[in-house]
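user:
I keep going back and forth on a fold encoding question. Separate attempts, laid side by side, tell us more than any discussion would. Would you put together a sequence-and-structure record for a protein of your own picking? Write it directly below this note and I will take it from there.

assistant:
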Amino acid sequence: MTTIARNKKAFFDYEIEDSVEAGLVLLGAEIKAIRAKDVNITGSYIKPFADKSGRVELWWVGSHFGVAEGDQTRTKKLLLNRREIDHITGRQSAKGQTILPLELFINRGRAKLKIGLGTHKKPHDRREELRERAVQRDAERDWRERSKR
C-alpha cells in the first residue's frame, strides 16, 4: 500500500469516528497524476447525490489532480457496497456528521480513497489538543536528553 496524499487538515479540524476504504472511478490522466503524486485532497469533501432511480451515490468533490488535459477538479464517483453507502449516509444525516476524504493510496495497483465520518471540533478542543501535543513533545525531548547522559 503506497500512500499518495493525506488530508492533515481533516485530522486537525474533525474528530474522526469511523473510516471506510472506497474505490474510485478515474480517467487515465487522473491515475497518471496519482502515480506521479500530483494530487491535492485538502479542502475536498464527499457529497451524497441521488441518481434518477432515487438510489444514493457518494461523489468526491473539490479534489485537484494535476492533469494536462481535461478538468482538474472533476467530481469522481466512489465505489462502495450499498450497505456501506446506506450506513455512511444514515450516520451523516442522523448525527450531523461530515464525510471527509482522509487518505489517497494505491493498493494492489488500484487507487483507493479512505473516507471518514467526523464531527467538527470546537476551537477550545483544538487548543487543548495542541497543549497536549506540546507537553508530550517536551516529555519526549527530556527523555531523550536524559538517556544521552
Q: What stands out?
A: The CA atoms of residues 29 and 69 lie 8 Å apart. Strands lie at 2-6, 14-24, 39-40, 45-50, 56-61, 64-65, 76-79, 98-107, 110-120. The longest strand covers residues 14-24. The mean pLDDT is 88.
